[in-house]
Amino acid sequence: MTDFLPAMAAYVVILVVVVLFGGLDGNSPARFVWAVLPIIPLAWVIWAMARHLRRIDELQSRQTYQGLSIGFGAAMLAAVTAGFLGIAGLDMRLGGWVIFVVGMLGWAVGQAVLAGRNG
Hints:
Helix 1 (4-21) runs antiparallel to helix 3 (39-55). The protein is flat. The chain has helices at residues 4-21, 30-36, 39-55, 58-87, 95-117. The protein is mainly α and 119 residues long. The chain folds into two domains: 1-55; 57-119. The chain crosses the membrane at residues 7-24, 30-50, 70-88, 94-115.
């Protein structure tokens, strides 16, 4: 967690700066650079997660990977659903966020259920 929390704090700070000052709804080509700035601290989050997985014991590691698998499956189900709804004409501009949230919730809930079952 010592690696993860600073990475998430950096993400939140950069996200607030981007939303307040990035002019994402404007016409400037710079808005695209602003829009991807929050990706930088997310790379740090991935690095922190990889370090965490190397440090935990086998049971925690198995539960984490199983939770990630559940989250991945949920995200793929959401992606296919969003794709078909988009083909049918539904406005899916926020579909990426829906897929992200479904995947993260699937991971969190799946891991919590697995941890509860295994004591």
